[in-house]
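Re: beginner question about structure tokens

> Can someone show what the tokenized structure looks like for a real chain? I only ever see the sequence side.

Sure, here's an example I had lying around. Input first:
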Amino acid sequence: MKKRETGWIAGLVFLLALVAIPVWYFTGTDDTVAGQVPDSPWDGVPRRAAPVDHAALMEGPFETGQQVTAACLECHEDSADQVIHTAHWRWESGAVEMEGREQPVSVGKKNAINNFCIGIQGNWESCTACHAGYGWEDASFDFEATENVDCLVCHDHSGGYKKGKKGLPAEGVDLLASAKSVGLPTRENCGGCHFRGGGGNAVKHGDLDESLYYPDEHVDVHMGRYDFQCIDCHRTEDHRIGGRSITVSVDNENQIACTDCHSPKLHADQRINAHTDTVACQTCHIPEVAVHQATKTHWDWSTAGDDEREEDTHEYLKIKGSFIYEKNLKPEFIWFNGLADRYLLGDTVQPEGEITPLNHPKGDIRDPNARIWPFKVHLAVQPYDAQYKTLMQPVTAGQGGFWREFDWDQALRLGAEVTGMDYSGDYGFTATAMYWPQTHMVAPKELALQCKACHCERGCIDWEAIGYPGDPLKWGSRERLLRVETAAAGEVSR
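And the corresponding structure tokens:
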């Protein structure tokens, strides 16, 4: 009888272990307690400096922006010198080694080609309205002139400061009122340029537009529910703002990440935590962008100049051509390791009928540093030299530009002069693509993608396109696939 009782107890212990061990494995980790989340999202965010009331400190009068800057520098002696060494001022990186390039590459808004307004060279007066400085009107702009640093564009709290051509204060701006109002940068300061990139509200990024000035939590949980300002994530030291975008940068330095504040193993479900090695946080937590305002996904420059077409901001403009805009855009999933290839002026385009990527994300399933990221992909048709097979950067704004003359040949000749490009006189139009990683418009966790959004029976995800033989639920994880490949390679080598 005693033996029978002992056996029954042993069986019960075994049964409990059989149930408890999987439960423990899938609900708890060494890094987090199951179900535990931070008491506040502010726990991982440095506290902002206390604001200083400048109303009594700025006396004026001020006739120019440079005079305001001079007054700022009386107390903030090093600030302008700090600014002129940043990407926001230089619009260009330092020299960076790039795979496939014989010489280090220096690139940024200053000299990169894109598939929106194409490029700033020759179009300075219009494009530099978003420069953090005053008076950039041509290639001779002095980047060492600290007196031209624009303090107000980032620090104005009056709501009345606007910039115009050449980056100068717009006509009618009350410089004294603006100077008296200054404080830490807000979403209004950052968004004044970044929400309107590419020529208008919501045009470029997809995850950045004017709905983020005062968003509700369904547009962006950090900004809407908790009133995050841009500087809370884009932390800044000596005016060097954290963050990098592969649309204008070729390195991954000074980058920011969700894990600066959040644990990568935050979830109560261990199965979700296991995804963070291969799937970016943004992929699940940004299920769609352009939530309130449609964003541009296609731009065809070849149709510009047609007097017969009716104009509509979201469909056709004579000066720019035809467009496609999309609202509630679902991002495309692409492997990404933080770096990207870069089309540089003078590179040849892809053969006819193929799309030339301007900044294709680097990384694939075999790259341990790569994760599946959400991207907005912007497609365009833009001018190129049909003989040399190179993209051309036209002059669009100002004297002789396409927006005045509607003469592509003239616009391209002028562009060739300012960029130093060769131009055969034989132009055409070719397809290009730009890739925009999506990091804003983070939804509340209740709206994050659920398992079935990707792992469904009818092909929600093109798994083969991103390197899997099929749904990883059936075919196994990246790690398993790589182990199988390694083992197979070993068998072949024998």
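Each token stands for a local structural state, so reading them left to right follows the chain. The chain has 16 helices and ten strands.
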